[in-house]
Amino acid sequence: MIMWMMIMYTTLATAAVSLLYVSAGVCRFGFIRKLFTNAKYQKAAGVILVFGAFALCGWFLNYINAIVCIIYFALSWLICDLLFWIAEKIRKRLFERYYSGITAIILSIAALGAGWYLDHQVWQTDYNLSTSKKVGDFKIVMFADSHIGTTFNAEGFEKHVRKMQLQNPDIAVIVGDFVDDDTTKQEMLSACRILGNLHTKHGIYFVFGNHDKGYYGAARRGFSAFELVKELQKNGITVLRDENVLIDDKIYIIGRRDYSEIREQSGHRKSMNELTENLDKTKYMLVLDHQPADFANQQTSEVDLVLSGHTHGGQLFPFNQVGKWIGANDMIYGHKKSGKTDFIVTSGISDWAIKFKTGTKSEYVVINIKESK
Length: 373
Prior knowledge:
With 373 residues, the protein is of the alpha/beta class. 43% of the residues lie in helices and 18% in strands. The protein has two domains: 2-118, no CATH class; 123-371, Purple Acid Phosphatase, chain A, domain 2 (4-Layer Sandwich). It is elongated, with a radius of gyration of 24 Å.
């Protein structure tokens, strides 16, 4: 908690410095200097324009996104100022216009525009895995972090489910954060119904993420975690909380309680050893664990595949790896094999508060598992 508080205060301080830096840059534009000959008025105009734009962005998108935007503008501006300063030193004379600021604005808008697109569009990502265990050919459709009501509502979710259906999966798995604190009860009910219409050979399986239970209580969003579970089960979705299911006598699906049960709620969840000690290790073992934060124990238990979400793929370049650097996550995005265990972490099909993905994209995942001969 202390570390996250430090990150929050550092972010706020960076945003404040960014606002001042961009304001100083704006007052160097020719049109500002033509309008105001007094240097104090030029600085005041820069501050008013930048802080006003920041307030408008916060009003329309929320202030988390306004902070993201101003930091991106400041980073671009700083880089451009440095590069154009070097160019001026090389050419031994100043540029007639403030090209550095113009370039910075163009680059910032381009980066944030691309980030908006990468966040709000959804791609299919495929992984092909092999195993010596007797599974035949097995296809999994996976998604996480839909946070229903953020980048799409239930109607938008239905379009993505239709695309998943085209894969004719053996199973579908939802690896946490299906809903959020801002998801309405009606959206939750509709999304559960839509998810239940996804046809698979061996069912749909769900594990909780840190947002599914809600941080602010049932009163805020109009439904509790119990009601969510009830609605999922009503629509044929199996909810796993430190439980396992054996399907087709070939594959164990092991669903874990989320790590937030320990980290944030002083609760308990079973260890990987407890979850696997009575299982037939000759069968394929698939683990659903929202947060990728227990890789060492999962590898030691020799499960075959671990699926996670939570990280949103690192979300923003160049801050993609922060979760790994501070020890909150073992991996941010993608696939790796360690020992006998494959690990896949998805960037998520949607988003939470930040509406830009400049270091990744939104996705659902298709995993093809083939039995090696």
